[in-house]
Amino acid sequence: MNLPIKWFLISLTLFFYLTGLAAGLLIGEFFSNLIGAIAAVFIMVIIGLTSYLVIHSTIINPLQKLQNSLKNIGEKDFEVRLDGGSQNEIGGLFGAFNTMVVDLKAIIEKLEQDKNLKSADKDKFEVVLSGISDAIIAVDLDQKIQIFNSAAQNLTGYSTEEVIGHHIGKVIRVFDRSDELLPFDYCPVNSSNSEEGVAFTKKDLKIVGKNKEFFANLVAGKIKGGTGINLGCILALHDTSEEKRLEEMKLDFVSMAAHELRTPLTSLRGYLSVLIKETKNTLGADDTMFLSRANISAQQLSALIENLLNVSRIENHKLTINIEPTDIRQLIQQSVDQIMERATEKKITLEFKRDDSPLPKVLIDKIRIGEVLGNLLSNAIAYTQDGGRVSVWIERKGDDVVTHVADTGEGISKESLQHLFTKFFRISGKLEQTTKGTGLGLYISKEIIQMHHGEIWVESELGKGSTFSFSLPTESKSLVLDFK
Amino acid sequence: MVKKVLLIEDDEFIRDLYKRQLDICDMFTYAFSNGADGLKSAQENQYDLILLDIMLPGMNGLDVLRSLKQNEKTKNIPVIMVSNLGQESVVKEGFALGAIGYLIKATFTPDQIVQEITKIFDQHSQSAQPPQAKG
Ligand SMILES: Nc1ncnc2c1ncn2[C@@H]1O[C@H](COP(=O)(O)OP(=O)(O)OP(=O)(O)O)[C@@H](O)[C@H]1O
Ligand SMILES: [Mg+2]
User: Fold this and answer.
1) What does the alpha-carbon distance between residue B65 and residue B79 come to, in Å, rounded to a whole number?
2) CB atoms B21 and A367 under 8 Å
3) Which of A105, A133, B83, B111 is the most exposed place for a label (fewest CB within 10 A)?
């Protein structure tokens, strides 16, 4: 029995005792003798006892029951019911109490259920998020991070706690090669709620996190109706570091294989050229032809290897140029001389129409432009019938020098013209069937010319021949150009 | 005047081809297949020109170039790098270390290589020693 009830009981008993005492004293006065006094005490005890018993069974017991039941409820036992209440107030109280317990039970059960449902949803959401191998980052309308999954933590080196509520631009930095992208570009948020869907996508970005960087493909989507839940944009980052590493390994392999192929081929070509020169006047016509053909094939083979290597470099952004002021006439002369043998073999007249007017130097990588000239010249010779003509000339146009390579060959149809500079494109003409080619020469040439801030184009008419031209900047233009 | 040339190239055939061709063109060539031997010879002889392959086994071309430039006796000898296409970054580094030119093996026939060498060498000696005033 706890204290307040005990005190209540004691004070009640005391109260009735005093009442009894008062009654006894009154009676004692009346009889004013010993019997009277004894009777008074007796009455007093009887009244005290009776009143204690009555109070105990009608008030104290039910109260105690009520208190115990409340304690049960406190311990989440909703099965308690109070009974035995009579028709009086206490009985009414018990009835009300029972109804309350039933209602309470229902309410609590409902709440419990809702809570379970919600946390199951939340768990599912979190399990899904952390199961995704791509980094998922969602930001609110102020571009502050709201969701940051475990892949995002692994890739950036930040923990979720460190970044939630922080501006995305303060957490990661995004680079497209050397250019930095701003959150404004890669993480657009919607204020209007109108559009949704992919808002930004870019491959091979460098992402810098907390002392950590990686390469990734990024897809950003605006969230429709995001204003309601305060979400603006969701970013998915697919880690491509591993792919990149494999790519590089592949490139290394290609370079290595190419090197191993090149070295023997270089000496093969070297010895052939020495042999051709030294036997020029001593060998018969047939033998000279055999040697010459062996030499041409060796040249084609090395051109093929260089082409494949170049494409691999272009695709990996590894192609670089070494710009130096160069005398273009000298370079053209060299290229023409180098291919003269092949022209002679096909009885094609190859000529460089050069004048010696003063000409500024061009800013080029002479090895690469040498390759372009080689490509255009070998095409002109390959796709022109025996006995045709190939001419080369240059022309000044403002701050550029334009080089033209014209042939009297088969020409190119309008449909083919538009695909000419794309990778692996070849026309299925008669001459193409008899020459070995990969369809890479013009693609590579275009890339090289563009790296020099020049242009390359073609004019052609079927059956009449083609003229390929490219422009290169001269020294006077150097100030405004930025060679990478 | 006969020029004395040091050729450091690991591939035997290419070494032979270049040496042959240089010798025909009035140059006196010593050829070595590795950097260490080449460096030793550079110390012991007076060369007018060094042709240095970039891709060498063991001590690579750039290491050799660095040692050459660090040594009093050899630091003024002009060095021309011999390389393959696609080694531009190495070539750039070579220029930074003081090479005066580079050649790409696959692009030239041996006799063209000799022409190139003569050209680079002549340009270099012209700019290094301006013609003296006639007296
Ligand atoms: N001067 C030309 N006259 C007619 N057709 C041409 C000429 N130059 C190129 N072409 C056409 O364009 C195609 C692509 O040329 P490209 O130089 O890119 O490749 P390719 O010569 O076939 O092979 P390779 O990679 O060995 O150069 C050729 O196959 C040919 O059909
Ligand atoms: Mg071609």
Assistant:
1) 8
2) no
3) A133
Residue A247 near residue A315 (C-beta atoms within 8 A): no
Q: Are the CB atoms for A396 and A355 separated by under 8 Å?
A: no
- Total number of domains in chain B: 1
| A324-482 classified as CATH 3.50.50.60 | no
- The answer to whether residue B97 neighbours chain A at the CB level (below 8 Å) is no
pTM of the model: 0.55
Q: Is residue B26 part of a domain?
A: yes
Arithmetic mean of pLDDT, A131-151? 92
Measured distance between the N- and C-terminal CA atoms of chain A, rounded to whole angstroms:
92
Q: Which residue is closest to B15 within chain A, CA to CA?
A: A267
Query: What class is the A132-240 domain?
Result: alpha beta
pLDDT given at position A480: 60
Pairing of strands A465-473, A400-407: antiparallel
Correct CATH for A245-316 of 3.40.1620.10, 1.10.760.10, 3.10.20.70, 1.10.287.130: 1.10.287.130
Average pLDDT, chain A: 85
Comparing A452 with A86, the larger pLDDT belongs to: A452
Higher pLDDT, A299 or A473: A473
CB A341 within 8 A of CB B114: no
φ, ψ for residue B8, nearest 5 deg: -115, 110
Q: Which ligand is nearest to the CA of A432?
A: 1
Residue A10 sits at the chain B interface (C-beta within 8 Å) = no
Alpha-helix runs per DSSP H in A316-349: 328-345
How would residue A17 be classed by pLDDT, with cut points 50, 70 and 90? low
DSSP calls for A80-121: -------SSHHHHHHHHHHHHHHHHHHHHHHHHHHHHHHHHH
In which element (H, E) is residue B38 found?
Answer: helix B35-44
pLDDT of the residue at B133:
44
Lowest mean pLDDT among A130-134, A200-204, A207-211, A228-232: A228-232
Question: What does the pLDDT look like over A391-414, one tens digit per residue?
Answer: 999 999 999 999 999 999 989 999
* B33/A141 Cα distance (integer angstroms): 67
Q: Cβ contact (<8 Å) for B105 and A262?
A: yes
Instruction: Check if A374 has its Cβ closer than 6 Å to any atom of ligand 1.
Output: no
Q: Which amino acid is at A240?
A: T
* Residues less than 5 Å from ion ligand 2, measured at CB: A 379, 441
Ligand 1 center to A439 CA (angstroms): 6
Q: State both tokens at B23.
A: 């010798």
Distance from the alpha carbon of residue A147 to the mean position of ligand 1, in angstroms:
53
- Give the mean pLDDT of A86-106: 81
pLDDT of residue B135: 37
In this model, does residue A476 exceed pLDDT 80? Answer: no
- CB within 8 Å: B92 and A322: yes
Q: Where are the domains of chain A?
A: 132-240, 245-316, 324-482
Is the predicted pLDDT of residue A84 greater than 80, yes or no?
Answer: no
Chain A interface includes B127 (CB < 8 A): no
Q: How far, in whole angstroms, is CA A431 from its chain's centroid? A: 47
Return the pLDDT at A87: 66
Residue of higher predicted confidence among A429 and A458: A458
